[in-house]
Each structure stands twice: as structure tokens, then as C-alpha cells.
Amino acid sequence: MTTEPTSLDGPLHGLRVLELSRVLAGPWASQMLGDLGADVIKVEQPGQGDDTRRWGPPFLPDGSRDSAYYLCANRNKRSIAIDIARPEGADLVRKLAERSDIVIENFRVGALARYGLDYESLRAIRPDVIYCSVTGFGQDGPEANRGGYDFLIQGMSGVMSVTGRPDGEPGEGPLKTGIPISDLSTGLYATISILAALNHRYRTGEGQYIDVALLDSQVALLANQASGWLNGGVEPKRMGNAHTLITPYQDFTCADGDIMIAVGNDRQFAKLCDVLGVPDLATDPRFAESGERSANRADLFAVIKPIIAGRTSADLLEALDAAKLPCGKVNTVPEILAHPQIEARGLIHELTRDDGTPVKFLGFPGKLSRSPATYRRVPPRSAQHTAEVLGAELGLDKDEIAALLSSGIVADRL
């Protein structure tokens, strides 16, 4: 279903976000707010910029040496470089905060208080500000003062204990996910929390403080694995690509490569048995119901794996698809980015830097029919908008900006 949008500004148009964060979780949250129309001002360290600018290769070939990693999380932003350790720099940030609806920061617990940039200090000048702190372990608890990194959190949270090949199989052992899932999920939870706080402010006029932690966010994603332990006393184990409760629901090897088959119920299992030419399996007491199939998966696989191994992937996928069974191939990243479905959904976009360098990116996946996401600004060079923001937003004249630049309190683009 499609309808013509009524706004091309985005649903958050008119809101300003002041970003005092770097790397991924905070920038991921602020980028989503920017995609939805908010004006995002990213404050970076003079001469350094966001850490991820140097996390390469690959880098953009435009002389900026900005990495592809940085580009994935920083579109729809303006970049300004301010030395917040100097009183004059901190004062500039406070003036920007006074004009901002949302502040996102990911400094260590208590670090911004020494500069007068903590929530209590900014609430004094902007009472309805929504202030979101992103840390590894949260603002309290015995681990609060520790630094948090995605890999560390994946291991501590338990997610690595349920990811990887089972004990006794080649390649056994815990594995991290192939994407920084702890950072990304924290950015998503931060965005959800900020939007909830915005609605609260619209109803009451009150701002509020939001405490989002990588560890909390990753543990929350344990979902069914945690519920099985909390409610049933069952400790989850690594299952490789198999499912703990549903069978067959994993990868299988065909004559020419691997495919995925995801059978979610007994009706689908009966259809699979028909496709594989073994309809009697669907009424075998060992396999007829989901629980029995999982308990007897070794016996089931002894029958169906050789059959699947004798079929080509294209032939079997065509037959499974005709039977309306969930199936597919294991795509590489280049393959899925070139997939007709991704093209049809319009997920890949391109913006151009002022020197003509193209930047491609994956857009916001939600399709809002009346106020869709928009892509207005290419990921900026470090400090690209320093003069623009100081002039247009804080009303400083050219001489005042020049004095700040010469003193090193602020910096122009690297």
C-alpha cells in the first residue's frame, strides 16, 4: 500500500539534536533521528574527529581519509569541532544545548560534569531538554565506571555463549556476531527511548534524562534464550545454525552449495516431506510433531540430509518455493546488496560530497507513508560546518569566529 507523502521534511523536522558522541551506538541513534528530519549537530574533537573516521580501510578517495565505517553512521549531520576541555569551548556547547531539544552523549560516567555539560547543568538552561547518556554499563551498579566496547559486551552479555558451533563439532566455541550488534541495538534502544521522551514532553512539557547501557541492551536481546532459563531452568547452548526448538530450521548442503530451510510448524513439515519424496516421515511418530522432531533430529537428518545433498540448490529451492516453504540461499554481502528485492525496496541511496565524491549508504528501513525519511546531508568532513553553525546558530560574526579558530578553541575542517 502506498500513499503520497504530505511532508518531505520528515516527521522530526523542527527538532534539533546535539550529538556529543562518537564511534557507533550514539551516532547510530542520532543518524536515525536525522533521517527522520531532525537537525543534528555533531561536536567533534579538534584535530581528531570521530574515532571511526580512521577505522579503515576502505577509505573515501577524496583526500579526507574518512572510512567507510564512519560513513555508515553519520549522514544527515553537521560537524563542528570544539575543545570542550577549555571553558570557552564548553560555553559554546552549552549555548548550542540551550537551542537543542535532544542531547546524546557517550562519555564515561560523570565525565561531562567537570565541563558543566552534564544533564543537571544543561537542564538549568534548557529545562525541557531530553538528555540521553550511552555507556557500556549504565550510570550505576558495580561496573558503571568501566569502559564498554561491542566485543566485550557481546561476550559478557551471554550472546556469544549461544552463538557458534556446538561443543564436539569442528570449529566449536563461542563467536561474536558478524556485525557490532551490541552497539547497534543500543543505538536502537536509545532512539526508541528518545522518541518516547519526546511524546512525554509533548504531553507534559517535561524533559528527562535517559540512561542507556550497552550491556542492558544486549541482555534484553537474549529474548527467548533468557526466558527459557528464567521460566524453565533450561540453560541455552550453542546450536550452530540450528534452532533450539524448531526442526528442521537450519542450513543444509546441496550438491552445489548450501541453502536454508526454515520449517516453523507441522503443516510445513508435511509439505517438506512431499517435496523431498518421503511423505511417510510426516506421520512417523518420531517426527509428526515439532517437539518430537527436535528430540529426534539426528534420526530425521539421517534420512533427509542425503536426499538434500543429492539435489542441486536451484532445483530444490524452486521446488520449496513452489510449495510456499520458507527457504533461501546464504547470500554474501555483495549478493544481497545486488538482490532485486533490495533494489525494489529502495534501500540503497547515494549522496555526493561537495567535491563530487559519491557516498553510497543503506537508508532508514521504515516506510512512513505520510512523512518518510529523507537524506539531506552527506556524512560531513570533520569540522566542515564549524563556521556555519557558529554564525547561523550562535550569531557570531566573522571576527569572533576567526578569534576562536586562531586560539584553537574551535577548528575548521581537517
TrEMBL record:
One of its GO terms (molecular function) is CoA-transferase activity. SUPFAM superfamilies: CoA-transferase family III (CaiB/BaiF). It holds the Pfam family CoA_transf_3. InterPro entries: CoA-transferase_III_domain, CoA-Trfase_fam_III, CoA-Trfase_III_dom3_sf, CoA-Trfase_III_dom_1_sf. Keywords: Transferase. PANTHER family: SUCCINATE--HYDROXYMETHYLGLUTARATE COA-TRANSFERASE (PTHR48207:SF3). This is Crotonobetainyl-CoA:carnitine CoA-transferase CaiB-like acyl-CoA transferase. It comes from Novosphingobium kunmingense. The lineage of its organism: Bacteria, Pseudomonadati, Pseudomonadota, Alphaproteobacteria, Sphingomonadales.
